[in-house]
Amino acid sequence: MNIFRFAGDMTHLISIVVLLLKIYATKSCSGISLKTQELYVIVFLARYLDLFTDFISVYNTVMKLVFIGSSLAIVWCMRMHRAVKRTYDKELDTFRHYFLVLGSFVLALLLHEKFTFQEIFWAFSIYLEAVAILPQLVMLQRSGNVDNLTGQYVFFLGAYRAFYILNWIYRFFTEPHFSRWIACLSGLVQTAFYADFFYYYFISWKNNAKLQLPA
Amino acid sequence: QSFSLNKDEL
Fold it and tell me: Mind telling me which residue stretches traverse the membrane in this protein (chain A) (predicted)?
């Protein structure tokens, strides 16, 4: 474990806490893409298949349970909670995310470390996570004005993988046989998707203005 | 065990 990876995990955790706060405090999920949240459930379930078979550390197991539990809770809330599901902007959340699942799975069948069930599902989860934010970013552009909590949620979500890139660079130089080319390349693509959001987020922060994404 | 060894990241 290094400081970059720990900062990345904490930033990821903060993004989830901010989203849960928004949904429970405002009893609203307006501006949040249910499709992106559903993709994250698939990402965590596909990546943590070894949750019960291999033990790495208490931290690792606890964080996996938190990520799986929170992503399921958010999807449940947006689909089943009476007050919250009424605020879901279904007509703005129109990205055909099934293609992202299909494309990621096909890519995992072609590009993986080893052709085993766990490695293919792990690569699938890595590719899917890279594109999982797309429905949310498209929805933000459609909905124009972004409320603070939603903006902070997307910001922390983008920042966490940027910390992971620093973690991979650090491990590359400190560990002899370290190679995570799948996670690294995918992480670069994932963080690149946030580039324009980060730009407009920085502008809104600098001008102390509302976050506005160009339609 | 080999799978998880190099999958120590979340």
Answer: 56-77, 98-115, 121-141, 153-173, 179-202
